[in-house]
Write a structure and sequence with these properties.
This protein is an alpha/beta fold and 338 residues long. It has two domains: 281 residues, HUPs (Rossmann fold, 3-Layer(aba) Sandwich), CATH 3.40.50; 41 residues, no CATH class. The chain is 44% helix and 8% strand. The chain has a six-stranded mixed beta sheet, sandwiched between helices. Strand 2, helix 3 and strand 3 form a beta-alpha-beta unit. Helix 10 packs across helix 11. The two termini are 40 Å apart.
């Protein structure tokens, strides 16, 4: 039996079945649809609108103009509650550190005027076994590069999701679980091609289900057209949601593109760059670069976060379809036979 145009193909598990399996196994006390405002998340939110309590959008503090407005308008169009999770000044603190750390650094430079930011961080690591947190204050890490994407993801997104998890469990047993629907698809990258439709980390109460995990790009597009789903202006311009621009996996030319499309917004990034350089922070350029063009962590083995819809594809490249992998395998065998 063939699938209808715009719906999931019959060869894969139906989105309703994936959610039903997650509910049956984990009995969540609440369910949220993780929403970025990008095209995949708009399809997910519409297709599974009967399966969650509300949309959850993270205001990372780095979204380009128009994203927040689109998210609010889409929630109204869909008729679903919207929960906005604010990261606040987290991005700035990650780049520039906090007042506690700088007070300690200034006091140290009074005794050692030649002490650099990097040297002070290294000294803390030797003396305390760590360079950040608690009485030490927040280290000025600078702008994240590929190797620091995990830090950016944890602080900008993961912590907000965990806060929503705790909030959703109030009044319920400690072992209660919360279901989060994600728009992750196996076609997005080679690594996501191996992802399971339902996952839960050992000992964690957060359950993640990916109802459209096997939908192709063509199926997503057909569904959007069939149901006349609105598209974010940012998604139309950037081919991604635009809700997070930490720069960790910024591609060549991306800086110039963002500056051209959103000059006033990017002026804020440039002001932070000037401040970071003046303070002696090494990675003082967006994208994780220093003043000489060197990049922090040129190669990363980190797994991009669950909510970073485009980061994984930008890091590893898109996944090949089963058909293309089969074709490549056959071609390899034919070449070997020759």
């Amino acid at each position: 039996m063939s699938a209808r145009v715009g719906e999931a193909p019959s060869l894969v598990v139906d989105p309703d079945e994936i959610v039903a399996l997650a509910r049956a196994e984990h009995e969540p006390v609440a369910a949220w649809c993780l929403f970025s405002g990008g095209n995949d998340s708009t399809v997910l939110a519409h297709r599974c609108r009967e399966h969650y309590d509300g949309l959850a959008w993270i205001d990372t503090g780095t979204a380009v103009p128009g994203v927040a407005e689109f998210v609010e308008d889409y929630a109204k169009w869909l008729g679903k509650p919207l929960r906005i999770l604010h990261a606040g000044d987290t991005y700035r603190h990650m780049v520039m550190g906090d007042l506690v750390w700088w007070a300690r650094f200034i006091a140290a430079t009074d005794a050692d005027p030649g002490l650099s930011v990097d040297a002070f961080i290294a000294r803390d690591e030797r003396e305390h076994g760590r360079a950040s947190g608690g009485e030490l204050g927040q280290v000025p890490h600078g702008f994240p590069g590929p190797g620091a994407h995990g830090r950016a993801y944890n602080r900008l997104k993961e912590r907000q999701i965990m806060a929503l998890l705790r909030e959703s469990k109030v009044g319920h047993p400690r072992r209660a679980r919360v279901l989060f629907l994600s728009g992750i698809r196996r076609a997005e990258s080679r690594r996501r091609a191996k992802r399971e439709a339902i996952t839960r980390e050992a000992g964690r109460a957060a359950v993640f289900a990916c109802p459209v995990i096997d939908w192709s790009n063509e199926e997503m597009l057909a569904y959007r057209h069939r149901h006349e789903i609105p598209e974010s202006p940012a998604a139309a311009l950037l081919f991604r949601s635009g809700e997070c621009n930490c720069g960790a996996f910024a591609a060549p030319g991306e800086r110039e593109m963002l500056k051209a499309l959103y000059p006033e917004w990017f002026a804020g990034i440039e002001a932070l760059e000037v401040e970071a350089q003046a303070a002696g922070v090494r990675w003082c350029r967006w994208g994780g670069y220093d003043v000489h063009g060197n990049r922090a962590g040129e190669v990363s083995r980190e797994r991009p976060g669950l909510l970073c819809e485009s980061c994984e594809a930008r890091q590893r490249g898109p996944a090949r379809s089963r058909r293309s992998r089969r074709g490549a395998s056959c071609a390899g065998r034919r070449s070997a036979q020759r």
